[in-house]
Design brief:
525 residues, alpha/beta, Rossmann fold, 7-stranded mixed sheet, 5-stranded parallel sheet, 19 helices, P-loop_NTPase
């Protein structure tokens, strides 16, 4: 089924600006065909995509305004014959839109299946930053197009064909699904627009007239640990830890960059301390090896708070969060061989530490965490192993971190979700941050090697996704081990180390491994 956002009658190739108005509608050139096009026979040029690319890279001169509302959502604004189009596009596929008429009122966008003449270029502009994060091929094409734009050169025809083909198959094959139904776009409410619901923190193209700038605190500050510790110095000065407690506060280099997610949690936690319902319970979900646990360590570092951890398993019970069963080293007389001690969870809650609870979706019984509901507020009564009780410290913080996408992950009870002050979902790291992390963790400073390995790793991951090879792991950890192995081999054996560190962990099926080697490694490495 064709996407309602593409192949519109609103624009034809002949109406494009030169030199694009003389391009053929279709090509059989293999360099122009997307990897998502399984037939690999031909690619078509969509004038809507060409126009969107021009707007996307026109920056301040663009007639379509694109703004970033958050890490996962964008808004567009442009003038059409029907009125001023305003729309929001989110990474989860949620789309809202409306038309502002001359009298200032708002009306719904016409059905895009019935009205094929409606110009959807602005929607494609809004999709581009999301799709380049989700699909390596789209990112690679846009990087090529951006290079051409920066050098004031015309866009290469093969990149325009390939991007048109890529978007066509991403949408029609539902690789990226939206909540558009039968051509209907849900209404972007007037209240949302007029009362600040579309406040942005960054303009990516054009000049907004209706969309309003946000004056909220921007978490995308790229603060170093030293700068963040200075920001929270007044708060952390209230703590007076014993010598043995100081050992549980993580230490990072002063120039280590604090993750944006960590800053968001720290600021909400500190700023809400005087509220009736302070923010003290958080959840951070995302793909494995994103850096969630490291982010929690940095959180403890910049707030100067001890950090303890609890790692969940499938057989955990509620009692496992309250006490640990350990060998008794005092074996005099008839002393039992094992004894109960307070768990890290209880220690952190009663002493005012941070506790990270890892992998909560691995617990078989979703009711286990429900049993902790009574301990989610400051001042809650917590039972100790000796039968006595203590109250939850007002500054104790719980951060639940969870990997997503594994078959072994289980649903989390809604009552547990309700206890969270907010939830952060983190998926792909932007390329520049991934490369910075790769350099930091491997101590390899040759940017050419880092870029080479990163690009091949991306192509392997994209190939596996396209072919449905999802049983293994293709995370940044695999990339780091590949680069480290190359380093240890004297910067040799790129191919063999790629097979051992990346491909062998992507799948244990030898035929699938051979497919990846032939389809990616032999072509790009």
């Amino acid at each position: 089924m064709k996407s309602v956002f593409l192949n519109r009658t609103a624009l034809s190739i002949e109406k494009l600006d030169p030199p694009y108005n003389t391009l053929e509608k279709r090509t059989t050139d293999k360099e122009c065909i997307s990897i998502y096009n399984e037939a690999q026979l031909m690619a078509g040029l969509d004038p809507i995509v060409v126009k969107a690319v021009q707007a996307y890279f026109s920056k301040d001169e663009s007639t379509i305004c694109l703004v970033k509302i958050s890490d996962t959502s964008y808004a567009v604004e442009t003038i059409l014959s029907e009125g001023i189009l305003l729309a929001t596009i989110s990474a989860n596929g949620r789309i809202r839109g409306s038309l502002r008429t001359d009298d200032g009122s708002y009306k719904a966008i016409p059905n895009l299946e019935n009205d094929t003449s409606f110009d959807t270029t602005a929607f494609i502009v809004g999709f581009l930053p999301i799709l380049r994060e989700k699909f390596p091929e789209v990112n690679e094409i846009l990087e090529n197009l951006e290079t051409s734009s920066n050098h004031l050169e015309p866009f290469a025809a093969k990149d325009l064909y390939k991007l048109s083909d890529s978007l066509e198959h991403i949408f029609t094959d539902r690789r990226f699904d939206t909540d558009e139904k039968g051509g209907n776009i849900a209404l972007l409410e007037e209240n949302t627009i007029e009362h600040g619901g579309l406040c942005y923190n960054k303009v990516l193209a054009g000049c907004p007239t209706i969309l309003a700038e946000s004056h909220a605190v921007n978490e995308d500050d790229n603060l170093t640990v030293a700068e963040a510790r200075k920001e929270f110095a007044a708060f952390s000065s209230e703590f007076h830890w014993e010598e043995d407690e100081l050992a549980f506060i993580p230490v990072f280099e002063d120039d280590f960059v604090v993750p944006n997610e960590t800053l968001k949690i720290a600021r909400r936690y500190v700023l809400s301390a005087g509220e009736k319902r302070p923010m003290v319970n958080f959840m951070w979900r995302g793909v494995t090896a994103y850096g969630k646990s490291t982010g929690v360590e940095v959180l403890a570092c910049i707030l100067n708070m001890p950090l303890l951890r609890v790692t969940c398993n499938s057989n955990m019970e509620t009692q496992d969060f309250l006490s640990d069963f350990v060998p008794n080293t005092d074996t005099a007389g008839d002393a039992p061989r094992f004894k109960h001690i307070e768990s890290n969870f209880v220690k952190a809650l009663t002493k005012g530490y941070i506790v990270e609870v890892q992998e909560i979706s691995r617990i078989k019984d979703s009711g286990v965490l429900v049993g902790l509901n009574e301990y989610d507020k400051a001042g809650s009564i917590i039972p100790l192993v000796d039968g006595s009780y203590l109250r939850r410290h007002p500054k104790a913080m719980v951060v639940y971190t969870d990997n997503v996408g594994y078959n072994s992950c289980r649903p989390i009870d809604p009552s547990v979700i309700r206890r969270m002050s907010f939830i952060i979902d983190s998926y792909d790291l932007p390329k520049e941050k991934a490369l910075a992390r790769l350099e930091l963790n491997t101590n390899v400073h040759n940017h050419g090697i880092l870029e080479k390995c990163y690009n091949v790793w991306l192509k392997i991951r994209d190939y596996c996704y396209t072919k449905g090879i999802t049983d293994g792991s293709i995370s940044l950890s695999e990339l780091e081990m590949w680069v480290l192995s190359v380093k240890l081999d004297g910067y040799r054996n790129f191919r063999q180390n790629c097979i051992e560190c990346v491909i062998a962990k992507a799948t244990n099926d030898l035929e699938e491994q051979d497919e990846i080697i032939t389809g990616v490694v032999d072509l790009y490495l």
